[in-house]
Each structure stands twice: as C-alpha cells, then as structure tokens.
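Quick one: structure tokens for this chain, please?
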Amino acid sequence: MKPISKKAGLFTVALFSAGLSGLVLAHGDVTPQAVETKGLTPLGTEWLEENPYRPGHPEYDAAVKIGASAYNQNCARCHGLEAISGGIAPDLREMEDGIEGDEWYLYRVREGSVRDGRVYMPRMADYMDQEAVWAIRAWLETVSHGH
C-alpha cells in the first residue's frame, strides 16, 4: 500500500474537522418530526403539569412505545441513543422521576433553549402535541437512573 502524502493527510484532516464542526454547529438546527400518537386518548389543548402516562395508566405501554420512537426521531440526535448523552446536551437519564422531573422537562420542551441568540433546542411543543411530549417523558422514565 502506498503511503499517504503529508499534503493529502492534511487535506483529509481538514475535511474530517470540517465535517465534525458541521455536526457541532448543527446542534439545535433540527426540524422536529411529527409523532403519530394513535392509541393515546387526546389530552386537550391545556397543558397538564404532570405526566399522565405512568405505570398503572391504561395507555402506559402504548405511551412508552410511542415515546421511544418519538425520542429517536426528535431527541436522540442531541441527547444520544437510549438517552445516553455524548456530552453535547444534558443526559436525560439524570432527570428526576415523577412530578419533580416533569416540571423541568415540560418547561424545557415548551420553551426550548436559546443562548446568545443561538437555538440549542427548539421549542418542541410547537411541533408536537402533549400526547407525544408526555409519551417521550414516559419512555425516558424507563431508562432513568432513578428507575
């Protein structure tokens, strides 16, 4: 095999670095995807303060399944597969379970995250109904460290 020249090596490193910087710059530059919530009873337009999909709820299993899919479509890019953060965004497994975690979660999902005019997380509630939002939360509680 022919050794790579220094010039070609530098070009390769530059291309690789440019690709990585694009990934970092793209953080938050995501178009949220629609979530199919068929099988979940509509919760209405007034946002609930607590996740209704907890163990014992008749739609809990459906919510967890929908939430896992919705998380992978909309959240995993920044928060990591299986909610294991790679350091770019908060590790969502660290959220408190129950109403304590619901409060922070709902605030962030509804308000997003903007620093110095840059969107780090879009206002996901602008793109998803509360059934989808709470279904994601139900799934997150299945992988949380407090579970």
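The chain is about 45% helix and 5% strand.
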